[in-house]
């Protein structure tokens, strides 16, 4: 019902929709230090208020929840459906070639730029779905609300603020994943650990290691400072390690000190196998250098035994597992800081439904403790699952099948979304199965036709669930 009208409307507003996405993607909305009235800094504040201005210009009733979250309501009736999207982004990162991160550009069938896929593009697609239903005067008995958050990438404290004020709608979907319907999300353990030792003055030695930007990003770059090694030794070790790992090493020498930069491939931590972890590659390189034996290097080798380069399943940590419902456990070593007397690190593990504190958390704690590391975590994030046979999910799948001609089915994912804590929330769109939009990596992009068909699907879902 209303399919012809919805398709014609979205197609006729295609260019306008792309322009609105670009407007938001020009804003660097990664989390920044707090300022008065700006809980996540000026970038997120600007993006939120720009998005609300756009929504208001299209006739929607908007509400700003203390600059944490903004909403746009389709009508003033009882709420039936929430669409939960976010406007914050991960840091720009390194390695962009198609464009600068915050200079969105159309090339061929793709829109490049940070946030085009995650999640500003899908957020605008949802807004245009609501706009289509509104401007086509399609009668509804219930309301749909677009919820725009600003802290999804760094803990979702924005949504905690919102749901402390508002109740969850009977149905919620987030266009922050992929089609068809993601009704199962893995749980997780962001393993935060430390170790200390007595500093050594023996040369040659490791001075420091710095690696990682965010816990949910596989590091594409990592750096170390070493002292007392000859350039030829470093160059030979770098060449050998690159052959083994595919990690490239850049060396900057200054008298007896060398700055080593490992360059790999960044990826979303839920898909660590798609990256090439510069952090673990750097640790492997360091263990192959003729550095003086000391407690520091003993601990570096032990750490590499627990999380070796290329181990993205937690095998060495003793937590590799999988189940039919949610797939395999994944692990990405994402953050590390090493000094002459200690270290602090974090790994991102996405855990299947079969995972428990007994077979993951306690195992990690015991195995790390045996090698001298202290795991600071005392809990895990539980998995999320919504019944795939519910009318809500079946309605989503029906709209997806109708507009794409593809088979609709429920799938699981490792990446957690905004709906993870909601009783009846699923991820729905906005990329198609098999599309690698480089989310969280360099040259992130959205396929324009996928955003357009997403807007059509979302509009149909609104009609089917709220009429």
Structure description:
The structure is a single chain. This protein is an alpha+beta fold. The chain has helices at residues 3-12, 14-25, 42-57, 120-135, 157-163, 231-245, 278-287, 295-306, 357-370, 391-404, 448-466; strands at 61-65, 69-73, 79-86, 105-107, 110-112, 143-149, 171-174, 177-178, 181-185, 187-196, 205-211, 217-218, 221-227, 248-254, 257-263, 267-268, 322-323, 327-328, 330-338, 342-351, 374-375, 384-385, 410-413, 425-427, 430-431, 445-447. The strands form 7 sheets. Strands 14-15-13-11-19-20-10-21 form an 8-stranded antiparallel β-sheet. The protein has a 6-stranded mixed β-sheet with strand order 1-2-6-3-7-24, sandwiched between helices. The chain is elongated and about 75 Å long. The mean pLDDT is 96.
Report helical residue fraction.
25-40%
Low-confidence stretches: none
Give the overall silhouette: elongated
Integer-rounded radius of gyration: 24 Å
Structural class of the secondary elements?
Answer: alpha+beta
Approximate strand percentage: 25-35%
Mean pLDDT rating: 96
Spatial arrangement of strands, main beta sheet? 14-15-13-11-19-20-10-21
Kindly state the number of beta strands: 26
Summarize it.
It is built from eleven helices and 26 strands. The chain has 467 residues and is α+β, with helices and mostly antiparallel strands.
Structural topology:
Elements: H1 3-12, H2 14-25, H3 42-57, E1 61-65, E2 69-73, E3 79-86, E4 105-107, E5 110-112, H4 120-135, E6 143-149, H5 157-163, E7 171-174, E8 177-178, E9 181-185, E10 187-196, E11 205-211, E12 217-218, E13 221-227, H6 231-245, E14 248-254, E15 257-263, E16 267-268, H7 278-287, H8 295-306, E17 322-323, E18 327-328, E19 330-338, E20 342-351, H9 357-370, E21 374-375, E22 384-385, H10 391-404, E23 410-413, E24 425-427, E25 430-431, E26 445-447, H11 448-466
Parallel strand pairs: 3-6, 3-7, 7-24, 8-25, 9-23
Antiparallel strand pairs: 1-2, 2-6, 4-5, 5-26, 9-22, 10-20, 10-21, 11-13, 11-19, 12-16, 13-15, 14-15, 17-18, 19-20
